[in-house]
Amino acid sequence: MILGDYGTSYTKLYSNGNTKIVPTVELEKGLTADAGCGHHARGRARRIENELVALATGAKALAGRDDFVCVDVGSRDIKKVTFANGQYAGCDWNYVCGALTGFTMELLSRYYNLEYEEIEPSEEGLPVKCGILGISSLFDLVAQGEDLRRAVARFVKGVAMNLYHFAGRPQTLFLAGGMCDNTLFVRSIPAEVVRLGRFVSLEGLKMLISDGLDLD
Amino acid sequence: MVGIIGLPSRILRDKYRGEDMVDLDCPLQVPPWRDYGAVESRCPKIFCAVLTTCFTNAVILKPDVILADVGPGKCEGARYLCAILRDLLPSTKIITEQNLDSARASASNCECYTVPLRQRMERIVDRIIQPELPDFPRSNSSPRAGFWGVPPSDFGILEGFPDETIILGWSRCMDSRTPADLALEMESPADIPVVFFSQSFCQKSILAKSLAEKHGGLFVESDQKVDNSTLQKIEAFLKLRGAL
């Protein structure tokens, strides 16, 4: 069985017990998953499941708690699911602005050739009202003489605070998606962060199939 | 031709009954609608899609008469719009009023669960200019989901709901023929998942968001065309709350 979580930048694939991550633009042509989710699943999976449903199902299976909020930070969007007393309690999906997303931070690290794990978090954040305005503020800071790494740390803190508020300012935040691997980002969130990893939606697809999701 | 904005009072609409009527709130099939100079030069890009539609239709069709509710049953935007249309269309007789009709009609279209949501919403809207159209009968069963809000600029947003969806908010007020009935507009059942919809840039968005928070519903807003992410968000909400 092949499953795929087809994101804007990266696709997470499951095949016969193994998982791998492939840049979506480099996906093998003609590969069709049995089930998939994500922005780029169309034409690549026989059965397409709603990505919020896949995320919620996977998060519930992995979190090991009855009450929690899980946020998935993707390249172009951010998704939130909330559970209370073991039951689904709400969801939200911000897909309009890059102020919250991984793409903006990946763009910055490539532009400045920086490794995020080598940067210390900042207590002070930049107001990142939108991705473009946030980057403009960062450029201004650097132009004013701020240390580049510190300026980037302030930018990341701004994004982390946006995420924290989007999540409802929880004490514990369950994080999914590629930003789990970004140590600076995780350390910038003012909450206990439980990293669920990048395969939460794939786990959800597996659970949905085992619960009877029709693949025909 | 008589153009209608919002839901004018029955007395006013009856005065013109039999005339060629057109609902200016509904998009016409005359693309590309943005290319009309008067619209492009006066209508901001960040503006309510429904009012933009009203404005565009009025400028294109130049009705002989426009009947408009510019009171609490519609919005301030409609009042401003009519002031501008008076200036732009000197040959059009523009009659504005505040429709404060308070006698609630049955609103059975909102609670007929054997007819798809979109078809029922179309009936509610169509009845403004075709009051002879029959209402769909109220069902005896209970709803599984709710749609709260105005008739959307893009009715495609309604297609993912189960047939057993109750219509709430201003659309219900329209069906009830009491467009300024704020108490009715704010009603929402507590035990079913409700999607609280607002047109982007509409003042009703604060009602939609606050009521969604109060009732554990889902707040969504959309501009002219509903996008795929919004549709997926609604689908996920309805699935995860057991309505689909």
What does this protein structure show overall?
The complex is a heterodimer of chains A (216) and B (244). The longest helix of chain A has 19 residues. Chain A contains six helices and ten strands. With 216 residues, chain A is of the alpha/beta class. Chain B is α/β, with parallel strands linked by helices. Chain B contains nine helices and eight strands. In chain B, the strands form two sheets. In chain B, strands 2-1-3-4 form a four-stranded parallel beta sheet, with helices on both faces. In chain B, strand 7, helix 8 and strand 8 form a beta-alpha-beta unit. The relative contact order of chain B is 0.14. Chains A and B meet through helix 1 and strand 8 of A and helix 9 of B.
Topology:
The complex is a heterodimer of chains A (216) and B (244).
Chain A (H helix, E strand, L loop, with lengths): L1 E5 L3 E6 L2 E6 L9 E5 L7 E4 L2 H13 L4 E6 L4 E7 L2 E8 L7 H11 L18 H13 L4 H19 L5 E5 L6 H6 L3 E6 L2 H11 L6
Parallel strand pairs in A: 1-4, 4-5, 6-9, 9-10
Antiparallel strand pairs in A: 1-2, 2-3, 6-7, 7-8
Chain B lengths: L1 E4 L4 H6 L5 E3 L13 H6 L6 H13 L3 E5 L6 H13 L4 E5 L19 H13 L15 E4 L16 E4 L1 H7 L5 H4 L8 E6 L5 H11 L2 E5 L5 H13 L4
Parallel strand pairs in B: 1-2, 1-3, 3-4, 5-6, 5-7, 7-8
Helix pairs in contact in B: 3-4
Give me a quick take on this structure.
By secondary structure, chain A is α/β, with parallel strands linked by helices. In chain A, 34% of the residues lie in helices and 27% in strands.
Highlighted features:
heterodimer, A: 216 residues, alpha/beta, five-stranded mixed beta sheet, 10 strands, 27% strand, B: 244 residues, four-stranded parallel beta sheet, 35% helix, 15% strand, globular
End-to-end C-alpha gap of chain B: 43 Å
Low-confidence stretches of chain B: none
**Tally of alpha and pi helices of chain A:** 6
The helix/strand order of chain A is: EEEEEHEEEHHHEHEH
**Biggest interface:** A-B, 14 and 11 residues
Tell me, rounded to a whole number, the average pLDDT of chain A.
Answer: 91
Radius of gyration of chain A, taken over Cα atoms and rounded to an integer in Å: 18 Å
Number of strands of chain A: 10
Q: How many extended strands of chain B?
A: 8
Q: Sheet with the most strands of chain A? A: 5 strands, mixed
Give the radius of gyration of chain B.
Answer: 18 Å
Strand proportion of chain A, as a percent range, falls in 25-35%
The best one-word shape of chain B is globular
